[in-house]
Amino acid sequence: MVLKLYAVGYVGGGSAIVALVLAEKKIPFELVVVDLEAKEQKTPKFLTKNPFGQVPVIDDDGFILYESRAICRYLAEKYANQGTPLLPEGLKERALVEQAASVELANFKPALVKVGRELGKPRRGLPVDQAVLAEALAELGAKLDVYEVILGKHKFLSGDEFTLADLFHLIYAKPIAASGLDFMTSRGPNVKRWWNELISRAAWVNLVAEGIKGTVS
């Protein structure tokens, strides 16, 4: 049975990084588009797959898994011997990947969310509080200053190889580009190099250009 991905068809949110792992690992899959505006993710049928009513979800021959980062880890483990290696084999090397992935979730994401919350106010008919935005950007900048040091020691966040820890950051790539701010490329040369390399990966460029499309129907 071919793997099924329940997700949006556009490159956004957790659907994007799961689709990217599928592309990097060259995993065939069927895309089942979930219409978020029609609240398909909240229907009783879908809630049997994810009780929180969110995408993405995968169905791998009856094995149901939700939460994008968990799905990415599962796919990287199951298909370790094909496509791009996204997880190292060594215990210590794997621990460093998990450390970097935890930093993304506990440090990078919360700081970026604060920036996004303020920049998103005009869409809700609210004015941007420039003082709050400046504070949020300063907090994010402080996190990126630490990234600058880390990335001065090796090419990627957990070593010299691209891993899931780096890939997870691409969940924010489109909102960052849409913000019109250059905080990812102006903080320091190491962060700039790393970020430009991430957003230039062939699999990512193709995904952004074409949207999420299943490889089998």
UniProtKB/TrEMBL annotation:
GO cellular component: cytoplasm
Entry superkingdom: Eukaryota
Catalyzed chemical reaction(s): RX + glutathione = an S-substituted glutathione + a halide anion + H(+)
Keyword Cell membrane set for record: no
GO molecular function, a single term: glutathione binding
One Pfam match: GST_N
Limits of the GST N-terminal domain: 2-83
Keyword Transferase included in the entry's annotation: yes
Alphabetical GO biological process terms: glutathione metabolic process
Keywords linked to the UniProt accession: Transferase
Residues annotated as domain GST C-terminal: 90-217
EC number of the protein: 2.5.1.18
Recorded family membership: Belongs to the GST superfamily.
Name this protein carries in UniProt: glutathione transferase
